[in-house]
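Minutes, project check-in
Item: structure for the 118-residue chain
Input as provided by the requester:
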Amino acid sequence: MRQEGPLRAKSFSFALRIVKLYQYLSTEQKEFVLSKQLLRSGTAIGALVREAEQAESRADFIHKLAIALKEANESEYWIELLHQSGFIDDTGFYSLSDDIKQLLKLLTSIIKTTRKSS
């Protein structure tokens, strides 16, 4: 099943923002643990979306996107934690928070629609 369009673009764009945030947090803020967790989960979303494009079946497609949804939820947690601990300012937080919420909605919608059409 091939899924292109907004999800692919948004997940890649989000991953790129996370890489740049990780670079900033590790070099400027000297924060390595939380930012590394966000780097892993934030970049995994796009990788799983790409994997889903090559799914072997509808069930495999849903499974890969469900894992991407879990990674997006985890990313939201790390973003909130980094904000509450003072590593991300309000402007950065609200921007990242908006992006991750959009990804969560897209993933949830695609998973539900694909399950219904099964």
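Outcome recorded: The chain has a mean pLDDT of 96.
No further action items on this chain.
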